[in-house]
Structures are given as structure tokens and as C-alpha cells.
Specification:
0% of the residues lie in helices and 44% in strands. It is an all-beta fold and 71 residues long.
């Protein structure tokens, strides 16, 4: 299957422990999947912008309206 086309913008937490980092997610190729895309961070947060993140490794799962998912 084809990959969802996603653009991810990361603003790092330059101090590492202040929780000032952020991630923004946007679809750039919506010809795959079935619309109604949602984004979930491995912290449990959902949306297209994730703020107040400490330095670390995060996984974003993209889901379409029929439940197809990709990390």
C-alpha cells in the first residue's frame, strides 16, 4: 500500500528538560487513504499540533476515517 503523505515540522526543546518543544503535522498528499485524517502522538495526545514537549523521541500515527493507520 502507498504511504500517507505527511509533512512534520519539529521545533526542538533546546534546553532538553523545559518542555518547550513542539511538533506540527499536516497532510501533503491526501490522494491516499479515505480522508478525515487524525494524528496521534505516542503520548496519547491527538491533533495536528503538539506543544510543550520535552526533548525525546516521539511517534506519530496517522489514521484515516476508515481506520487505516501508519506510523
Amino acid at each position: 500500500p502507498a504511504d500517507f503523505g505527511v509533512n512534520v515540522t519539529v521545533v526542538p526543546d533546546t534546553v532538553g528538560t523545559t518542555g518547550k518543544g513542539s511538533i506540527q503535522v499536516a497532510m501533503v498528499n491526501s490522494s491516499f487513504g479515505f480522508g478525515g485524517y487524525t494524528f496521534a502522538l505516542n503520548t496519547g495526545a491527538t491533533g495536528s499540533t503538539f506543544n510543550n514537549l520535552a526533548a525525546g523521541t516521539y511517534t506519530i500515527t496517522v489514521s484515516d476515517r476508515i481506520g487505516c493507520k501508519q506510523d
